[in-house]
Amino acid sequence: MVVESFLLDPAPEYPVSITAKRYCEEHFASNANNPAALTLVLLHSTSFHKETWEPTLSDLFTLLRKGGDNAPAIREAWVIECPNHGVSGQINKDRLMAEGFRDFSCFRYAEAAHRFLTTSSSWTGPQNDIRKRNLVGIGHSLGANAMLILQHLEPSLVFSKLIIIEPMLTAAGPLALEPLRHHLVTRARKRIKLWDSREAVRTAYNNPQRRAAKWDMRVTNLFMEYALHWNGEHQKYELSCTPEQEVAMYLDPDGSTKPVEDLNLICHRLPVHLVLGKTPDFVPREVHEALFDSRSGRRFASITWMDAGHLIPQEIPTKLSAVIYDALGGNPSSRL
């Protein structure tokens, strides 16, 4: 897998840096002149980082190789990082104290993705104008919500389909997720801020009593590398997405409801594939089911229930890659 890193500098209209990575394989070059070839755009969940998608992408690319001429044509995949997470959180540490960015939100993540995608031709050349590609949006949790918001931002970006994984959405009003919000905020505020070593973090996260013990080992390794950074002042490691920033994301008053309005429109305009976890360890099942209630008028190209909890990309990236592969091929079956 070929990986390239990109950094978009701050601008007056968006005064924080935006980082992204481009993933492809050498044989994807043969699709460069194919207008139907897909460019994937991926957004991640709260408290993670852009590299958390690497195991899923690696396994997806393996499926594409095995599929040969019958596989969907892919040009590349872009993963855009939420600016207060991962490497971006470290780069933007001081800028995130500015008014309007101290309380980061789902909308701000969508804005970051929009700015990155709509300015791509200015820093990669007109031949790499991502806006002109056949775009497929893939988002998990926070990233799913931000992907939905992205659909109405101007100037508009045209996506051919969306794959929405465990969205933090409630069609029944904000109170339906209030217990979850309280739990997530309480947990984030109790996080250990400083660690003596990455191995100390690994040992803690591998505790069988923690959800992180279920993660794919590749995801855990990437978390240790990209979700932590060295704090020279304290001579310890700290989380790149600070507990304060994580709490701000969870307290976003509109983050779980406003994207439903976008979904109501989008699902009639393009195929939306919904991927959910069977284990209701975060979002209650009835909240998920309200999204595809027949009385809502919403429709989905497919609905897939997977044997996992909320953190599907972290727990079962290989199985998720197969679901994404099916959705990209255009003929997935509903797995209710």
Describe the protein in words.
With 336 residues, this protein is an alpha/beta fold. 35% of the residues lie in helices and 18% in strands. The protein has one domain (2-187, 253-329): Rossmann fold, CATH 3.40.50. It has an eight-stranded mixed sheet. Pfam families: Abhydrolase_6. Residues 40-314 form the AB hydrolase-1 domain.
| Mean pLDDT figure | 94
CATH superfamily, please?
Alpha/Beta hydrolase fold, catalytic domain
Low-confidence stretches: 330-336
- Counting H and I runs of at least 4 residues, what is the number of helices? 13
Kindly estimate the percentage of residues that lie in beta strands according to DSSP: 15-25%
Class computed from helices, strands and strand pairing: alpha/beta
Q: Could you give the distance between the termini?
A: 33 Å
CATH-level-2 architecture: 3-Layer(aba) Sandwich
Strands, helices and their partners?
Layout: E1 2-8, E2 18-24, E3 38-43, H1 54-67, E4 74-80, H2 86-91, H3 106-118, H4 120-124, E5 134-140, H5 142-150, E6 159-165, H6 178-189, E7 194-195, H7 198-205, H8 217-226, E8 228-231, E9 236-239, H9 243-250, H10 258-266, E10 272-277, H11 285-291, E11 302-306, H12 312-315, H13 317-329
Helix pairs in contact: 1-13, 3-5, 5-10, 6-9, 7-8
Task: List the keywords.
336 residues; alpha/beta; Rossmann fold; eight-stranded mixed sheet; three-stranded antiparallel sheet; 13 helices; 11 strands; disordered C terminus; AB_hydrolase_fold; AB hydrolase-1 domain-containing protein; AB_hydrolase_1
Give a brief outline of the structure.
This protein has 336 residues and is an alpha/beta fold. The chain has one domain: Rossmann fold (3-Layer(aba) Sandwich).
